[in-house]
Amino acid sequence: MQNVTDSFVSLGHWPSAGSFGFNTDILATNLINLSVVLGVLIFFGKGVLSDLLDNRKQKIFNTIRNSEELREGAIEQLEKARACLSKVEMEADRFRVNGYSEIEREKLNLINSTYKTLEQLENYKNETINFEQQRAINQVRQRVFQQALQGALGTLNSCLNNELHLRTISANISMFGAMKEITD
Description:
Number of strands: 0
Family: Belongs to the ATPase B chain family.
Shape: rod-shaped
Main location: membrane
Membrane topology: Single-pass membrane protein
Distance between the termini: 171 Å
Keywords: ATP synthesis, CF(0), Chloroplast, Hydrogen ion transport, Ion transport, Membrane, Plastid, Thylakoid, Transmembrane, Transmembrane helix, Transport
């Protein structure tokens, strides 16, 4: 450190002219060269450095401002998305409740419809059974009547002679005549 201060002090003791030589004190010459270079850089580079720093500062501020705007936009979109989500959830709940009640209503309607259909089928079955019973009874009656008639005709044909046949015809004619007089 002593050397550095000595070199500044010795600047005032240099001979004014006449001798030219090399200064072998490396610290003194480097310090002088460095101070000259720094002085020139500060004098000429102050504007450039200031402009570079201002540009950099402006870019940082713009980036921060853009980030803030994007953040605010993202927050707004998030709020909108949350509002939309809550709206959709409410709609889904409403559809779910309505869907369950609609399903229950459809289930009851289907059960009632099935009972009515079963009741109608039971009625049709009973009507069909009654119809078939009546048909069977009528067929049996016809056969019994035909057999009875054939038996009676066979008996009449075998038992009747001409005289009995004529008396029966006469009795029937007189019966029909009496019935005709009553109806007139």
